[in-house]
Amino acid sequence: MEAIRVSHPERWWFARAEDLPWLVNPDGWNERPRWADRDTRHWAEIAPIVDGLARALSAGAYDVEGGNAVLRVELSTLEETDRKIVRSWFQPWQAPSADPWSTTMSDGRHRCWNSWHAQPSALLPLSSALFEHTDHVHEMPAETLRYYRDDAATGLATMPQEVADLAPLYVAELRRAASLEVPDDTREEETRAASSPGRVLPNSPAVESLAKRIADLLARRTVVDADDLRSPRDRDRAATNHQRHQREDPSGPAGRERP
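Request: output the structure for the sequence above.
Response:
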């Protein structure tokens, strides 16, 4: 018997082929297998073993060591490559990864497709794509944390009951994620600014002080005469025209004698 360790069993759920209707033959796009040995693997032997492990994990029929679920399984009847396929199913960052509301799968499309092709009724274990980020929740900015929380809430609202019944630990973890409190964006922004003294935030005292200074400068600004905005050539031309007008019309305001 071989021990299969499953990290964080609460981050797993269990799917039948009909639960992922969007999953099509991943080799169908270019009509050639991505893995050259795809058709020589014994999927009809792999699928029932993975199915048995999924059912044991779903039922809680496992030992617990260091927070990990430990499943016992006989793999001696499989070829070494097929044993590696079974082991990889439960390895971090190698496991088939998706959620019930997903429309794509980052890892495991070939394993799932070939297993269901060999045994259409198989129940397969899937690692939650959402919970890949759970260990970093405390580091998430408010906007990212809000997406994380809302995804969990959406998952709970749309999950078929038969899927939920097979994964009570996963459902409990979704409920915890959906109830997370998201810090106020403004407060978080102010906290970040406190650690960045050179950064100025909208509506902050620094901005208000700057606005008052600008208003004061504008209020004390002297009016610039339009002549000052002209080029030297334009000012000379205007002066010449003014003198000519004075000679032609001495009765103008500048040419009148004082009473």
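The beta strands are 2-6, 12-15, 63-65, 68-73, 124-127.
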